[in-house]
Design brief:
The chain is of the alpha/beta class and 666 residues long. It is 28% helix and 25% strand. The chain has an 8-stranded mixed sheet, sandwiched between helices. It has an 8-stranded mixed sheet with strand order 17-18-16-26-27-28-25-29, sandwiched between helices. The chain has a 6-stranded mixed sheet with strand order 20-13-12-24-31-30. Strand 2 and strand 3 form a beta hairpin. Bound molecules: flavin-adenine dinucleotide (FAD) and S-adenosylmethionine. The site of S-adenosylmethionine has 22 residues, from helix 3.
């Protein structure tokens, strides 16, 4: 997907239902699974051909990684997850990456699977988290984070090209489950099969129902040993096999976003500097992977930019793909799912700690709204274009602009999120330790607080907002500080009717403890973090001009309270997430790009061993920090990444250095 292409949701397939509710694709004129016994068929072709019963017991790595071409109804996935759940401990965690061009609608997915009682508990969790039809990659955390399901709503060759571009071996097993090759040739091309081999581990296996000669030859050419075996039920033959010859990557992308250090997989302890949203999410993401984490902060939990009362979770839609829109949308879907799971914890309360009540985004861009109305068509679960009357009905207060409704959105209380994440077992927080510094000595990192805390570790993550540039030689990071203020409005009779978030030039959230948080102001050039009366008036005026005249805000214009904080932003408004380059070495490795920006430099980026960063979340920390943490933790643990390579590069700290080198072009 390239920048500036029109933005459109993925198409659901047109399904007709055969006897026993077997789904049939009208587009491909083929069934999704056998009409005699779907479960036995899937087990035979995929689970047994890959010998998973035995391999889950004997696998010695942390994670077992399966790739699937054609997620379809999710039956193969549900059966794999069931088998994994029933496998005895010790067993690896499970990663399952599946490509699907035409994701089934939620209703079709339910209908296709609800005939199997043995899958019902897993189906319920999948349904709860099944992503909307936004093209691109979606990571779902299942089974308390022990099972990762990456759904790539895109053509299979794009997923495989993307994953093979890293020159890392991710996959232990493959399920090749396109429709029959003669009906669905794009799923079986030799180029696609070659990419599969490139991102597979040595001895990775595959299973498939087909015995097509072309598929067999493509697999052999890619380095697989192919075995023809008896097919399921009345089918004569099918194929299974194992990778014999690992292929090298011939990617023509200069890997300035990929670290030379790949030996961090086995690290079991980390220090995270910063106890705001970024640091708390990173600590939790590392902890989900069995890493013990020390979080240190010079102040309290959420004492920096994450101290707001009601932060809004949302993304702005656009008519076109851009790095910013695509990243924001994926971040929104991921974080919304993660925050909604937090409410299962009885100490995390709806209305106090947050509420995913939806948000209405007012817009005067009539071209955008007309485009979205058409593009969103049958996808209200992504967003719905509403006129101001319908929006007023839904919100419970009168608004004057048309716009769109985002049902995955809402508001959250960031300090509650940080606290909830940081209190998990395996995470130790040391607060008020004075300024923390980091230095490299004797092949390890020494992390030391001015007042307390000192420790040696192999893994450090900087999540200290704009202070990140004060560590080591990182003053090259182009971080900006933007001071902003929110205002607390005591709820009046009519404003108390507000049922969801309303975003205009600013925003207003439904009541929390009898008050609404409204926001917010932006000051790039002010230095002092102090509450200002004129900022309160600005917030009130922005709200006043966006709501109906019937709402009288006058009575509330006395005795303001509010909150002021620092946003750390980057020049392109995308966050800064990834391994930290070593400036001088990095500039030297890629210096040839200053003469020819299109040159392919095959060297990976020289980076500080075990040093990562997550900052620059600007005014979207609530939306961006969860997926950023997942990206970092996946990278460190050698797992397939949760976003595409294009987005990984877009947020990489190294992008600024590369841009500088290219700018120097003689
Ligand atoms: C007025 C305002 C309104 C906002 N509204 C929204 C919103 O509606 N939605 C949204 O998504 N985002 C919003 N944001 C932005 C969001 O809050 C930030 O993006 C987010 O808090 C960034 O989190 P962070 O963890 O990266 O940084 P921070 O929360 O700033 O955390 C950095 C931490 O590092 C610590 N630290 C710094 N230096 C050191 C050191 N040397 N040693 C140890 N510790 C150190 C600090 O004490 C701090 O706790 C708003 C921000 C402001 C200011
Ligand atoms: C046989 S069905 C898969 C059944 C599925 N594994 C299950 O468990 O239900 C084949 C799937 O491949 C998908 N598909 C077809 N062409 C594709 C392509 N080029 N890229 C990705 N998916 C594709 C179809 O939409 C369909 O869902």
């Amino acid at each position: 997907m390239l920048d500036n292409q029109p933005w459109k949701p993925a198409h659901h397939p047109t399904i007709s239902w055969k006897t026993n509710n077997i789904p049939y694709s009208e587009e491909n004129r083929d069934i999704y699974y056998s009409n005699s016994n779907g479960i036995d068929e899937s087990n035979y072709y995929f689970i047994n051909s890959n010998d998973l019963h035995k391999r889950f017991k004997t696998h010695t790595e942390e994670r077992f990684c399966i790739g699937e071409l054609g997620f379809g109804s999710g039956l193969n996935f549900l059966l794999t997850w069931l088998m994994w759940s029933n496998a005895p401990y010790p067993k690896p965690k499970l990663s399952y990456c599946a490509a699907e061009l035409n994701p089934m609608s939620l209703e079709d997915l339910k209908k296709a699977n609800n005939k199997w009682p043995q899958l019902s508990h897993l189906l319920a969790e999948l349904i709860e988290k099944y992503p909307v039809a936004i093209k691109g990659q979606h990571r779902i955390l299942l089974n308390e984070g022990n099972v990762h399901l990456d759904l790539w709503w895109c053509p299979a060759d794009i997923m495989c090209d993307d994953l093979s571009s890293y020159d890392r071996s991710y996959f232990d097993a493959w399920y090749l489950d396109g429709f029959a090759p003669r009906l669905n040739p794009s799923m079986w091309s030799s180029k696609l099969i070659a990419s599969i081999a490139k991102c597979s581990k040595p001895s990775a296996t595959f299973g498939t129902f087909t015995s097509s000669g072309d598929v067999r030859r493509a697999l052999e050419q890619a380095g697989f040993e192919v075995i023809k075996q008896k097919g399921f039920a009345k089918k004569r033959n099918c194929l299974k096999g194992r990778l014999l010859i690992s292929s090298t990557n011939h990617s023509k992308i200069t890997p300035w976003d990929i670290s030379t250090n790949t030996n961090e997989k086995s690290i079991k302890h980390a220090v995270v500097i910063g106890a705001g949203l970024s640091g708390a999410h990173i600590a939790a993401a590392l902890n989900r992977r069995g890493i013990e984490v020390d979080v240190v902060d010079s102040d309290k939990i959420a004492a920096g930019g994450s101290g707001n009362n009601q932060a809004i979770l949302y993304a702005r839609l656009s008519t076109k793909h851009s790095l910013l829109t695509d990243f924001s949308l994926q971040a929104l879907i991921f974080s919304s799912s993660m925050y909604s799971e937090m409410f299962f914890d009885p100490t995390f309360r709806r209305g106090e700690d947050g509420d995913l009540c939806g948000a209405f985004v007012g817009s005067e861009d009539t071209e955008l709204l007309a485009y979205l109305k058409d593009a969103l068509g049958k996808h209200p679960e992504i967003a719905e274009v509403l006129d101001h009357k319908e929006a007023s009905n839904r919100l419970g207060i009168e608004v004057v602009k048309n716009g769109y409704w985002l049902s995955a959105s809402g508001w959250m209380h960031p300090p509650s999120i940080c606290k909830n994440l940081l209190e998990r077992p395996g995470i130790n927080s040391t607060l008020d330790c004075g300024k923390v510094t980091v230095r490299r000595q004797g092949g390890v990192w020494i992390v030391k607080g001015e007042k307390k805390f000192e420790c040696q570790t192999n893994l450090v993550v900087l999540a200290a907002g704009d202070a990140c540039k004060n560590f080591l030689d990182l003053n090259w990071l182009p971080l900006r500080t933007n001071i902003g203020q929110t205002t607390q409005l005591r709820s009046s009779n009519d404003l108390s009717q507000l049922k969801a978030v309303f975003c205009h030039d600013g925003y207003i959230a439904p009541t929390r403890f009898g008050e609404h948080c409204i926001g917010s102001t932006y000051h790039l050039h002010k230095k002092n973090v102090i509450l200002r009366n004129e900022d309160h008036l600005t917030n009130i005026e922005k709200l006043r001009s966006s709501i109906g005249k019937s709402h009288d805000l006058k009575i509330l214009e006395t005795d303001f309270d509010g909150w002021v904080g620092r946003r750390c932003t980057s020049p392109d408004y995308l966050p800064i997430v990834g391994p930290v380059p070593i400036l001088s070495k990095f500039n030297s490795v890629y210096s040839a790009l200053s003469k020819n920006a299109k040159l392919h430099v095959p060297e990976k980026a020289p980076t500080h061993p075990g040093l990562y960063i997550s900052t620059g979340h600007g005014s979207r920390g609530l939306t961006y920090s969860a997926i950023s943490a997942e990206i970092l933790a996946s990278n460190i643990s050698g797992e397939p990444p949760p976003v595409s390579r294009r987005l990984m590069r877009a947020i990489s700290p190294a992008r600024f250095l590369i841009r500088e080198i290219i700018k120097r072009r003689s």
